[in-house]
Structure formats: structure tokens, C-alpha cells
Design a protein that fits this description.
Blueprint lengths: L1 H15 L5 H20 L6 H45 L1
């Protein structure tokens, strides 16, 4: 389980920084956190479980932060386009 959490932490981190896939990095990171905690409770020795836990936490946080930023950016762009459309419509009248 320790190796699985490490792999999921790495994969989650990769998906977290790809625009549009931050949500997937967050989900993969949560699964990696769960596997790392289970591995640590089973007494996993070595650093794979700890590295998997750290990478999964970073992937989850980064993925969710970038997802929220992307949603806010799209909302702001939509609002700006609506303002432009309203000003064009007003100037044509």
C-alpha cells in the first residue's frame, strides 16, 4: 500500500498542475492519502508511505486550489464578456 500511495501521490501531482484536470488530481490525492494512512497503520517501514502521504497532501491541496482559481477565472471572463455585450448593445440603440 505504501508504494501505491507514493504512485498515486506522483500521479495526482501531475494531474493537479494540468489545466482543467485539477479536480482529478485532488481526487487521486485523497485516495493516496487514504492508502498512505492505512500503510502507516499497518506498520510500513521505510519512507514510501511518508513520501506518498506528503505528495498526496500536496496534490490534493494544489489540485483544489488550482481548480477553484480556474472556476473563478472562467466566471470573471464570463462576466467581462457580458459587460462587453451589454455595452455594445447599448451603443447600438
Amino acid at each position: 500500500m505504501a508504494i501505491a500511495s507514493l504512485v498515486l501521490g506522483i500521479v495526482g501531482l501531475v494531474f493537479a498542475v494540468i489545466p482543467g484536470f485539477g479536480w482529478l488530481g485532488g481526487i487521486i490525492g485523497v485516495v493516496g492519502i487514504i492508502l498512505a494512512v492505512v500503510a502507516k497503520k499497518q506498520g510500513a517501514t521505510g519512507g514510501a508511505a511518508t513520501a506518498g502521504l506528503v505528495l498526496s497532501i500536496i496534490a490534493t491541496a494544489l489540485g483544489l486550489i488550482l481548480y477553484i482559481a480556474c472556476v473563478a477565472c472562467v466566471k470573471a471572463a464570463g462576466s467581462a464578456l457580458e459587460d462587453v455585450a451589454n455595452s455594445i448593445s447599448a451603443s447600438l440603440k
